[in-house]
Amino acid sequence: MKRYLSFTWILGLMLLAGGGFTFLVKGATTTLSATFIWVGLILLLLSLYSNFSSIKDLISKRSTRYGFNTAVMVAVFFVVLGLIAVMSIKYKLRWDLTAAGRYTLSDQTQKLLKSLKKDVTATAFYRSDERTKQQMEDLMEEYSTYSPKFKYQFIDPDKRPGLASKYGVTSYRTTLIQSEGKQEVVGFESEEKLTNAILKVTRGKVKTVYFLKGHGENNITDFQNSGYKAVREAVEKENYQVKELLLLETLTLPEDASVLVISGPKKDLLPEELNRIKDYIDSGGKVLFMIDPFTVPDTVSFLKRYGFNIGDDIIIDKLSQVFGANYLTPVVAQYDKEHPITKDFDLATFFPLARSVAVEKDLSKGIYPLAMTGEQSWAETDKKALEQGKAEYNGDKDKKGPVSIASVVTVEAKVEEQQKDNANRKRYAKIVVIGDSDFVNNTNINLAGNKDLFLNSVNWLAEEADLITIRKKEISSTPLLLTKAQGRLMFWLPVIIMPSIVLIAGIFILNRRRIKK
User: Is 477 part of a structural domain of the chain?
Assistant: First the structure.
């Protein structure tokens, strides 16, 4: 009997270790882990009782005391490791140490998840041995940490073909996003795709952004450098429907127009068109004007009634040459910190060939200058001097920096339109004017914060406050650039020199041992 009891402590330790491991894996106490732990403790106590005299003699030895101290230190070490493991499971502490923050959700995604009011379920169909399954699981886990409303599950379509058939899934790596009867399909592992799908199933009707055409505006189908195809794609990624509008073909703006964008017209709008835009604004419409220097004077005059003082000038910024741009591309780093569009905006923006757009700031009336150039800039009014390349600041004619390059005005809708809406809720029109349209063409849209400023303006006009944020930038590789000398050093040091040192040291030690023998 004693022979068998002598092995009980080994079995007891194994059961304790198994119970602890099961607890760490599951993240909670289960029947299995509790059984292992209690049986292990009973076996250890039984072993201690049956070998009490032997243990007593062993403890009295000096070597045992030293060994016991060592065992205690080792035990403390493993206990600390266990506590760290338990805390990491419970609190899910994570740090993204990559330079580009590639494992951190974008501000836009975080903001969306925190504002979820509906339950959202993601069902991912991946084979158990799918190489990219872990990547998608990590992404889903990250989403769930920001909102208890977001839940997910993984299904192997090979093991549960009935469920795959029920949801109409015919291919692997397919994820269904569902909320209150709405459903969207995500084809592969992408934060952008997943976030857009959540937007589609949680938002109401899809809003429409109209781009005016017929006056030489930027073309949203043009993929050339000066085109606006990238703008169209960016707006669509925010889950808006994008359409073009020829105003002369309609007496009024379409009822589904959430936002009207007038981008870089080369010719002035006709009086009839301006009147239709006025009616749209009077009824609570939302308009984004982007007007280039020395163009469309009638449209500029039209905007004066709303408080915009758009200068017949072009902004010069000598500081822009420091950033590799010419002095006709002002760099903006000063923004209004109270308005939602630029409240948390901390990115520089670049505006090739821009004019001033000034307003008298009045918070009570919703009038804000959004973006200001630097102190070294000015608004140049001498067009002839500009053409000759001899522009100089003239205190009598030019406006010294900082110069406002973008402004916003909120206008209360007309009374008769208020009655059509809700009698208890006032309705407001919103107008954003930016003194440049080239800053978001296909060439410039991805410069610093250009796209973010444009999309934030569209989202504010469309009353989608949850989408106003700084978007995650595309992850690009960061190559290590070396000179020829550095390249040679990187070859010789690890490939030749360090192995040679180890080899020579080994030969030297071997020879010394032979001499001693």
Answer: no
Number of neighbouring beta carbons within 10 Å of residue 441: 23
Q: Are strands 367-373 and 404-412 parallel, antiparallel or unpaired?
A: antiparallel
Q: Are residues 68 and 215 located together in one domain of the fold? A: no
Q: Are residues 35 and 156 in the same domain?
A: no
The SS3 of residue 179 is strand
What pTM was computed for the model? 0.68
CA separation for the pair 385, 404 (Å, rounded): 22
- Predicted pLDDT at 230: 96
The answer to whether residues 59 and 129 belong to one domain is no
- Give residue-wise pLDDT tens across range 206-259: 899 999 999 999 999 999 999 999 999 999 988 899 999 999 888 889 999 999
| Cα 167 from Cα 176, distance rounded (Å) | 8
Residue 101's pLDDT band, with cuts at 50, 70 and 90, is low
Q: Which tens digits make up the pLDDT trace of 266-289? A: 999 999 999 999 999 999 999 999
The residue count for the chain:
517
CB 260 within 8 A of CB 288: yes
Which positions ≥6 away from 27 have C-beta within 8 Å? 89, 90
Do 53 and 15 meet the contact criterion of CB atoms below 8 Å apart?
Answer: no
Is residue 224 assigned to a domain? yes
Task: Confirm if 422 and 389 have CB atoms less than 8 A apart.
Answer: no
How many Å apart are CA 333 and CA 375, to the nearest integer? 11
476 in a domain, yes or no? no
Report the candidate in 451, 461, 433, 437 with the shortest Cα–Cα distance to residue 234.
451
Report the distance separating Cα 36 and Cα 20, nearest Å. 8
